[in-house]
Amino acid sequence: MAAEAAPPLFTEAIIFLAATVVAVPLAKRLGLGSVVGYLAAGVTVGPFGLGVFGSAEHILAVAELGVVLLLFVIGLELDAKRLWSMRRDIFGLGTSQVVLTGAALFTALRLAGLPFEAALIAGFGLALSSTAFALQILQERGQLSSPYGQRAFGILLLQDIAIVPLLALVSILAPGETAGGATEVAVEIGLTVGAVLAVVLTGRYLVSPLFLFLAGSRAREVMLTAALLVALGSAGIMHAVGLSMALGAFLAGVLLAESSFRHTLEADIEPFRSLLMGLFFVAVGMSLDLSIVLSSWTTVLVGVALVMLFKGTALWALARLFGSPNADALRIAVTLPQGGEFAFVLFTAAVGQKILAPELSNLLTAIVILTMLLTPLAGIGLDRVAARLKARGVENPAVESFGEAMPTVLVIGFGRFGMMVAQFLTSEGLPITAIDNRPDRIAYARKLGYKVYYGDATRADVLAAAGGGKAALIALCVENDKVMERAIAIIRDGFPQAKLFCRATDRAHALALTRQGVDFQIRETFESSIAFGRAALSALGTPSDRIAQIEEDVRRRDQERLDLQMKEGMFAGADKLHGVTPRDSSDTGNG
Question: Interior CA angle at 275 toward 269 and 276, to 5°?
Fold first, then answer.
């Protein structure tokens, strides 16, 4: 009997996974970063390497969803107020970079003999950087939230917006275009505004109530499905009117940044984002036509050098002009000098409108891919220069590292106990992030002015999304002992830098927490009982100094009993519960 045929793409999937498993760890071991590893894997298995895949186009179409999910996750980390505070970087610095770099590259291409229309589209297409590559590099380095990372992100966001007028420019410059083109542009603008309003209204008024309803079902897979639906649905609305899908997903993420479900959404989508982003980089590597590189290698090398030099110089100069220190300006320059994925879209549209010849488009695509491949190397070069200067004792502010962020606290469980803990911490001005898995508690806390997010204490990915990796202290205030036990193991394994403070439900739980080695534990009723006893003694006429003496003695005997129980079991030290607190010698004559 003949063997049953393998499912479609089964063999290709095995080869793709094997290539990445080999190439990515090797690239990271060499200090090149995962992006270079994915690109190398793509070149190897692509149509111009081993030829396992005939074309990268069908893979790239699916893999672009990774960029969509990446922008959605980035949007979740930026609420509307923070985005508004970045407006100068987005519209000022970002617009200046696109205009200045595009004009410089347009001039160079005109001098090289390209027609006006072709030079204009090619120059401004090459001025766009890769959102996927730059953000992946920033996330790997943990510098997306740094001052230069936020400024770089503002530039990338403007570039994503700039693809819209550039695509309109292709239509306007197309041979034989008539005045009717202006009407079409006006219609496109109207559709764009309508799509943006649709995403905004849906995100603000429908999505949060939907997630609140789904959270009550406690079905994680339904929450995951809804998260993907929101991200991809917003992208689809934008794509339908010709806008960037990634921009639509980003806008949806921003609208959900204030939602209670922000961290859970981020944790649910992260595995899909990571896998699809890897597939995207592999598909880009597969698109590199080695025959073009070899046949026109001098032109390609000159093009790569000009793009990275012009763009890097413009980025450094403009960042300095907009107030960045030299260190930040240099890091922006080595993070964004590459061409971007939107250049592929622009060049394809220009070929369809007969503005660019197919041969020229292929040459420009090869230049873009090689600039992507070389970008991580530029960052590594800057780091090595910084390390050598530091080893020689040279103070060089141009490559100095960035300051540490203010320590934060993660509060897990936001009932009455957790709320009081949060009040103490915020009274000192300390930033806190609070999570709970009960929608009713979250809604109540938000009415009181607290930002509490939906999340499961036993999920490492949720705790990481909520900032567990950056927290100086994690306060476990949940009521369920079993949940706390699992959470402690996860926190100790995943976030060892954080001090771990726990709420104990009773004496047995306090002993268990002590055995687990938490940094601090307290029984939820102990301190309130002490306060109750102090008030009772005061009402019975006991002097305040005697009350303080009794409290000190009770606390001492309780600790001695705990020590005995740790060694001998729960019933050890029972005698410590009884006895009268001795009086000071000064109290002898007070009868």
Answer: 85
